[in-house]
Each structure stands twice: as structure tokens, then as C-alpha cells.
Design a protein that fits this description.
Elements (H helix, E strand, L loop, with lengths): L1 H12 L3 E9 L5 E6 L2 H14 L8 H7 L4 E10 L6 H16 L9
Antiparallel strand pairs: 1-2, 1-3
Amino acid sequence: MNRRKEITNAYKERKLYGGVYTITNILTGKYLIGHTANLKSMQNRFLFAMAAGSAVHPKLQKDWEELGAQAFTLEVLEELEQRPDQSQAEFMDDLKTLEQLCRANLNASKEY
């Protein structure tokens, strides 16, 4: 039972990293920008979608099917650690603001 308690405590004490990312079609330059409270989860989801051949987002579906998963890359633009005193809602608000700042540096005409 001690091992289970250790694992539970380690899970609760882990540092959470969220951030802003783009999924870019390297052939056309078109991109999808987003934010997530768990970057590792998003990276795993992207890798799974590539292996399974299914698009990670509906907006990418047509190009994903026509060009294949190898035509897309995932790039983390900004990373943010959730503070211990920060609620999930506050963290998501910070990530949304960070996404807006990153979006201002991108070419809006290339967005999916």
C-alpha cells in the first residue's frame, strides 16, 4: 500500500507544463495554433494521430488525408509552468493570453 501512496503523492506533486503550440503543414505553410494545459499530452496525441493516420484536428482533416501525416509538424512556441497557488481556470486564462500574444506574431492569412 505504501507504493501506491508514493505514486499518488508523486502524481499530485508533479509540475504541470502547459503552452502554446502550432501544427504546421510544411508543404503549404498553413498552421493551426492552440494552447493546452498539458503539453506532454498534446505531443503524445499528435504522435498517436500520425501513427494512426487520423487528423489531430477537424480543420486539418482534408490536407491530412491528401498529403499524409508526414506533411505536418508540431512545434511548441511557448511553455508555461502552472504555479502551485494557481487554479486550473487561472492557468487556462494565462495560456489563452499567451496564445493571443503568439498569434500576433504569425501570418493570419496562413491559419487554417
